[in-house]
Design goal:
The chain is of the alpha+beta class and 89 residues long. Helices cover 36% and strands 22% of the residues. It is elongated.
Length: 89
């Protein structure tokens, strides 16, 4: 299934939705970026490039803030919206 087909399959459904909201949570660099800008984890990328890209990301976040995507489905019993969770088990 292509991305377009996948998206279209959910666009017209009334029992699922995706909301994008501003996120005021205070995150650590580790939580936001993981090892994306870590030179040890990315030895093939020049350290200066990683540093520059990290600074660009800080600037982007300062100017735009952060957003979060919230996937929800409508409860079949009570019809209220329920936040979908991921089971990592």
């Amino acid at each position: 299934m292509t991305d377009k087909e996948y998206t279209e399959a959910f666009e017209n459904r009334e029992d699922v939705r995706l909301r994008i909201e501003h996120d005021d949570t205070s995150y650590t660099d580790d939580e936001l970026f993981g090892d994306t800008y870590n030179p040890k984890a990315n030895p093939d990328i020049p350290e200066e490039q990683l540093r520059r890209e990290l600074m660009e990301m800080y600037k982007f976040i300062d100017e735009n803030g952060l957003t979060v995507a919230i996937a929800e489905y409508r409860c079949a019993h009570c019809k209220s919206w329920v936040i979908a969770t991921v089971n990592h088990g």
